[in-house]
Amino acid sequence: MSQFSPFLNRWLSTVGPDRAVSTLAELMGGAVFVVNAKGEILLWSRGAERLLGFSSEQVLGQPCSSAIRCRDRDVRNSIAQEGRIDGVSIELDHAQGGTVRVKRSAQAFFDAQGRFAGAIEMLWPAEAEPRTKSIGLQAADKAEVFHGLITRDSALKQAFQIIRNVAQTEATVLIRGESGTGKELVAQALHEESHRRSHPFLAINCATLSANLLESELFGHVRGAFTGAIKDHQGLFKRADGGTIFLDEVAELPLELQAKLLRVLQEKTFIPVGGDHPITVDVRIVAATHRSLREEVKAGHFREDLMYRLRVVPIFLPPLRARRQDIGLLLQRFIDQHNLHGPRRIQSIEPEAIRVLLDHHWPGNVRELQNVVEYAFAVGRGDVLQLDDLPPEFREEPLSPTVADLPVTENEADRIRRALASAHGHIDRAAQLLGMSRATFWRKRKKYGL
Questions:
Q1: I need a surface site. Which of 233, 239, 394, 408 has the fewest CB within 10 A?
Q2: 337-342, long-range: CB < 8 A, 24+ apart
Q3: Residues 87 and 61 placed together within one structural domain of the fold
């Protein structure tokens, strides 16, 4: 038994026992969780999320036997009877529908009357890959789970590795991807993989606020800076000192604020609205956009020097239609998540529904797929997901857009973008809408970074 000072309890009451235990669990690095006398999960480490795929929101407060579906024996009974377990091999369900063989160690705790009071457990992989068992979709044995993202796609797996590597540096990262591809999840993953993980991660969408509000929210303001400024306000850069700021839709940042952002990147200083003294901060900036910053620079909407400072390391997230092998994988994940919490449990999917889902072009990407599953759980009943459970557009014949539907006043990049959306990602159909050959269409897409 480890020895401790008589002042340890006083120190724990100062820092907070929950914070101390949580920090210790993260420092240990493996999958660590805590259960109470009823077997309900009280703590779920990030390592546990990575190993089994279940988020803390899914399992906290749930009985271990149902939350992570322990297969061998009920956790409470086994650890209560044995008191301590060292390196026992067991099989647990993975969040994606398969199983994973792990090693398990645990220590039980008992109250003054000798009754079981709970346990601390640690898990680590016993095999390199989980064995899978699908409910009618593709198997997940080659899937990679990374901070809430999951894929079989080689391009996205390569992006995961870039994130791991660049997280160990201070390089500024620009994430490119369509809406719904998971840009904020990538930014959070980069933060969690970096040495800044114990400091704040703050995010803001640059397209949702006016220039004045955005400046105040980013850099703060002093009392009296403008009408209504009755007290000093700390902006995101001050509040995120030591951590990471995620600037979503950075291409929408007004020109007058771009110079101020460039100053923060270059000199690590800024002046609040109405202030006269510079403030020094240590903040990493991760930006994201669905637009090509090069095209925005050409159009005079974005500073070229800021573009180069933001895109030191560009990370490209492919749309869901470009990684079709992930559609079934993600569908399985979202169904499993809803099965845990809703009155409906889906055990299988009607073949026609699978066909329609796999053939859909997903212009809203992963977010659209997630919303479709939520819709199906809300309107349908029974343990089979049927075609009638899907939103109405999945049961309608797609409309055939024409060139006349595309505004002639748009620039070429916007027309190409709109044609792709109208054609639901069909390259040939989009090229026909614009009266281009497939080769010309591909060349122009590359030119505009679309």
A1: 408
A2: 337/58, 337/95, 338/373, 338/374, 338/377, 340/58, 340/62, 340/67, 341/58, 342/377
A3: yes
